[in-house]
Specification:
Length: 859
């Protein structure tokens, strides 16, 4: 394959040089465009890594695949410019690309049975199939013998099978790749689209049969038309990363709605709060597949949450039981202020104190199998929702669970109409991080007005900011950064705007709610059950929240503002961060910085950045020297009619000449559309350059002496200058007298793509004169902004990333410079004379012949 490319390269250069030069030019422009795009993509990946931006891993994968395609095209374009060299560059790219793709590769998933597991069949070996919540709950039954509702789990393999059959992974990844975590609108839009995809998808037949069989067996064993709770159990859920309240539970589900409820729970994996929470913890979508619990619905008389220690202080001597009448949804969703019972772990589990909540309503199952909220009779409003015997039983269970799981637990429970208690969930309790920060927020006498001084600390800390009060969820879309959110209830889905919150104050709620759990993880101060919060705190008001002291102050307190509770740096060290660090190490570092270094070669590349840098440099060199590779006369070239004694042949690569001249063999200056050539010729034609005295290379004399003998024609391409042009590109090989000049320039509207490369060598004077001319060129070019490299009589200069307007001036000056130096090596005698010529050049002198100098001296 490589041999065939070389043969094609040589064949086209020999027989179709004009066509091949156009192909090279297109490759060069393509390389520059892909080079630019590659740098933008690298910058995006670096920003994600260094600034710890919260994005889904699908965004990193999408950006990298675009980068990989750009770098691949850069290499392909370079090989078009010169197939003879750089062949091994692709090998280094493939090595880096393989490493990165390996880190981005989606883990293989198993879509084979079992699709359903009964609680008693869930073990440590297959626990991941059941997800975190179901595994913990089944362990409560099998290891400790504690009661849980009857039911089964639809496994993560069923989830993977569901996604595979409906081809959901690709469209979902595309949506996640464009997700803006700082925009609630973006999160909501993503959820709406993905949710619809899932709702429209079909349950695979084999999964549907497995669910129906398990459902039917439960119906048979109970001999009645039972109802079910369909609850999430994703991998990772109810671990140290709780996902508290971020997934959906569908309650009171009958057989006819079981599949629809299953899909609703699956879809909740992409709710705004769940997406925000997962991405903040650096987990991928594929790493958190969703299993679904289907449990017998308990018509609860009372429900609640048990904490096996105090979450703020960390006090482990007591158990805190939160209880409300009816179903527990109103508690965990922040809609109810519960009864709180504090029980000693020792002393025969004595009840230390009870605090009645402000409970006026409860959620129940209606006779028609619906969920409804009803008012609590007046005579029961001030009664504790949990009796003392049930309190002691829950305390014993809580102590067992804490001991068994080896840490403080957050436990959900319920009690049915017959007095039977059930456990619904046990997960690690999110407690406050103790330390100096909390001490810095200790209360002291301050002059600021106290606006609120009651409530319950759901998450410790201090915060200052402006009040943002919401009446409906849509208000969250205009939430400013660093706000104190004030609301009726602490809803779990407020997690989706957690990055904009400094603190939260609510009328109702408790520390047992889902939002409180997540707020403690993120380090956001939260004060709940402060009844007059929405009445007293107005929008835009500057306030300071001291959640530990259950106080809200008017204005900003300087002492507290210096010690605001920091949001947890969730991206400081997580799986996403570690993978991205590895990926960036093969993308971003730049080792090849010096083109003249011996290590500036493909073997020296250690990253994609190196490959791009090397390819760009080599492409410029290939285009700069392209005049030396082409045939001296190209059939499609045109002769430029000009008054200066230089024979110009032009090869139009596209839009370099006006359309009306396409058929003419000769063109005038007015037909040139090439931006760089037009401005360079303007300089060459400057009226103060006296070409009439240019006799160093007398074409007529040369014609009479040499060409008359038939040795060579004066029209020979060997004596001509060539310009390869487009509307914004010039590659000029200029020959006049014994001087040889190459100018390569790209002048677009995008400064970062623009460059001018200049080479000057030759001359008919003595060696000292040529070196003095070199000194002159070096100084002038540096003053014009070029980086100059001088080796003997050879001058190489480069200027990059210049605005087109600046380039027009520089090219004009280069034209004047070429006119001024045409015989300078014959006239310069010493360094002082060369340095003085530099000053005079910028003062407008472009002829340094002795006669001109004498004339100027006499003026």
């Amino acid at each position: 394959m490589h041999f065939r490319k070389l043969v094609s390269y040589w064949f086209n250069q020999l027989f179709f040089p004009g066509t091949y030069l156009q192909k090279q030019y297109r490759a060069f422009k393509s390389l520059l465009e892909n080079d630019k795009q590659a740098h933008l993509l690298i910058a995006q990946l670096e920003e994600i890594y260094h600034n710890r931006l919260q994005v889904d891993t699908a965004a990193v994968e999408k950006t990298y695949l675009q980068l990989s395609a750009c770098v691949s095209q850069v290499i392909a374009d370079l090989l078009t410019l010169s197939p003879v060299r750089y062949g091994n560059l692709a090998d280094y790219f493939k090595k880096f690309d393989d490493y990165i793709r390996l880190m981005l590769a989606t883990p293989a998933v198993n879509c084979n049975p079992p699709y359903v597991l009964l609680a008693e069949s869930i073990t440590a070996e297959n626990g991941e199939l059941a997800g975190g919540k179901a595994y913990n709950l089944s362990t409560v039954k099998t290891a400790l013998g504690l009661p849980i509702p009857e039911g089964f789990v639809v496994t993560t393999r069923a989830y993977h099978r569901f996604f595979e059959v409906n081809n959901l992974r690709k469209p979902i990844n595309l949506i996640l790749a464009d997700l803006d975590l700082k925009s609630l609108k973006s999160l909501k839009n993503a959820f709406n689209v993905i949710s619809q995809l899932i709702q429209d998808a079909e349950i695979p037949e084999e999964v549907g049969i497995a669910i129906q069989d398990a459902f039917g067996n439960l119906q048979s064993s109970f001999g009645e038309n039972i109802r079910f709770a369909v609850r999430s159990s994703a991998v990772g859920e109810d671990s140290k990363i709780s996902f508290a309240g971020q997934y959906r539970s569908v309650l009171n589900v009958g057989e006819e709605d079981i599949f629809q409820a299953y899909k609703k729970v699956i879809a909740s994996k992409y709710s705004p709060g769940a997406l925000y929470y997962r991405i903040c913890h650096g987990l991928t979508d594929v790493e958190t597949p969703m299993a679904v619990q289907i449990l017998k619905m308990i018509p609860a008389e009372a429900s609640g949450v048990v904490y096996t220690r105090e979450p703020e202080s960390g006090d482990a001597s007591s158990i805190l039981i939160h209880s409300i009448p009816g179903l527990g949804e109103m508690l965990v969703n922040g809609g109810s202020t519960p009864d709180i019972i504090k029980v000693s772990k020792e002393n025969n589990h004595q009840i230390e104190c009870k605090t009645n909540g402000n409970i006026t309503e409860k959620m129940v199952l209606s006779a028609s199998h619906n969920l409804e909220t009803i008012s609590i009779p007046a005579g029961q409003k001030h009664c504790c929702s949990l009796d003392d015997e049930s309190t002691r039983v829950l305390t014993k269970w809580a102590v067992k669970l804490e001991r068994f799981f080896g840490g403080p637990q957050d436990i959900e429970w319920c009690k049915d109409q017959h007095g039977q208690l059930y456990l619904l969930q046990s997960r690690p309790l999110s407690t406050e991080k103790q330390g100096a920060l909390k001490l810095s927020c200790e209360y002291q006498k301050i002059p600021n007005q106290i606006l609120l001084d009651e409530g319950e600390t759901a998450s410790s800390g201090c915060a200052t900011g402006k009040v943002f009060k919401i009446n409906q969820d849509s208000d969250l879309e205009s939430l400013p950064a660093h706000s104190i959110l004030v609301a009726k209830n602490p809803q779990a889905h407020y997690v989706a705007v957690m990055d904009k919150l400094s603190g939260v104050v609510t009328d109702q709620g408790s520390k047992a709610g889902h939002f409180a759990s997540v707020a403690r993880e993120f380090g956001i101060p939260v004060l709940v059950n402060s009844p007059k919060a929405t009445e007293i705190l107005d929008n835009g008001m500057d306030i300071t929240v001291h959640a530990d002291r259950k106080m809200v102050f008017a204005g900003s307190i300087s002492e507290y503002s210096r010690h605001q509770s920091p949001k947890s740096a969730l991206l400081a060290d997580n799986p996403f961060k570690r993978r991205l660090k590895f990926i960036i190490s093969f993308i971003s570092p730049l080792q090849l910085v010096d083109p003249d270094s011996a290590t500036f070669r493909p073997e020296g590349c250690r990253s994609l950045h190196d490959i791009i840098r090397y390819s760009h440099e080599m492409a410029l060199r290939e285009m700069f020297n392209i005049g030396d590779k082409r045939s001296p006369r190209i059939r499609s070239s045109r002769l430029l009619e000009t008054k200066i004694p230089i024979r110009f042949y032009l090869l139009d690569l596209g839009k370099g000449l006006s359309h009306e001249q396409e058929q003419n063999r000769q063109v005038g200056l007015e037909q040139i559309r090439c931006f760089p050539l037009k401005h360079l010729l303007n300089g060459l034609h400057h009226p103060d350059i006296l070409w009439s005295g240019f006799s160093h290379f007398n074409w007529e004399e040369y014609d009479n002496i040499v060409m008359a003998g038939g040795m060579i024609s004066k029209n020979s391409g060997h004596l001509a200058s060539y310009a390869m042009i487009s509307d914004d590109y010039l590659n000029l090989n200029l020959r006049f007298g014994y001087h040889f000049v190459i100018v390569d320039c790209l002048a677009t509207r995008q400064a970062e793509k623009n460059h001018v490369t200049f080479r000057f060598t030759g001359g008919g004077g003595v060696e000292e004169g040529k070196l003095l001319r070199t000194r002159f060129l070096d100084s002038v070019l540096q003053k014009l902004g070029f980086k100059v490299d001088v080796r003997g009589e050879l001058v190489d200069a480069r200027l990059k990333e210049v605005e087109a307007e600046t380039l027009s001036h520089i090219l004009d000056m280069i034209g004047r410079l070429l006119g001024a130096t045409r015989l300078m090596d014959m006239y310069l005698k010493d360094k002082n004379m060369a340095d003085r010529a530099v000053e005079e050049f910028f003062q407008g002198r472009y002829d340094f012949s002795p006669a001109d100098g004498a004339n100027q001296a006499s003026n």
